[in-house]
Known about the structure:
Mean pLDDT: 96
Oligomer: single chain
Largest sheet: 6 strands, parallel
Radius of gyration: 17 Å
Number of helices: 8
Low-confidence stretches: none
Bound molecules: 6-phosphogluconic acid
Structural class: alpha/beta
Amino acid sequence: xRNYRQTVGVEINIFADAPALATGxxxxxxxxxxLAIARADRFAVAISGGSTPILFFAELAGAYSAMxxxxxxHIFWVDERCVPPTDAAxxxxxxxxxxxxxxxxPAANIHRMLGEEQASAAARIYEAELRDFFVxxxxxxxxxxxxxLGVGEDGHTASLFPATAALHETEDMVSGNFVPKLNxxxxxxxxxxxxxxxxxxxxxxxxxxxxxxxxxxxxxxxVDMLPMQGVCPREGELLWxxxxxxxxxxxxxxx
Length: 255
Ligand code: 6PG
């Protein structure tokens, strides 16, 4: 049986270390933004939380900020914890502190998931916001210009964790998802939404990710065990950016 890498046709770029990876991710963001703004006069991007994006956000907020037309950039989230926006665990708070407070993006362009609400209610509210922003006819999926994902050591991405209900959602764009291992509710984009994107960028750094990345790429797809393997853009680009430590488990990079 073909492995994930053979199945989805993914491009993998490897960088020497985490700072180089962050620069590579920033340059990819700029490329996607420039293309989207040239084509549609706006750039709709969904970002993840966690620790990996911190250096990436700092690059966008610093050296590369002037290369972006923030007035035309719309920031959405891939997922959010069910906490207030001021909570230390909030993905919104991290992005605000590391990026949004440092660039001239209009408040109306910041599309926060309402972590302070009950997960399923927040998911319905966010789905309505997506339908409104993308002006979607019934049955259509929002096509983000870019979705930036991380990967957990357990193979989760967004808040799509192994053996959780949202993995199998095929109708809703956004879902509440109870995560038993965390004993917590999350709000997350679903696979159909992620896979409708024009470009999905996965960034991963550190030796602690090498085993799961090897398993994601080199084993046959089994989304309930390795949700990352459910990321397969239907009509879009899938690009993985890794530092050497995270890529250490990959063999035969040529194929
Ligand atoms: C979150 C993220 C999550 C993250 C992975 C990797 O809410 O935590 O959206 O999906 O991307 O857990 O996290 P790290 O970057 O911290 O390894």
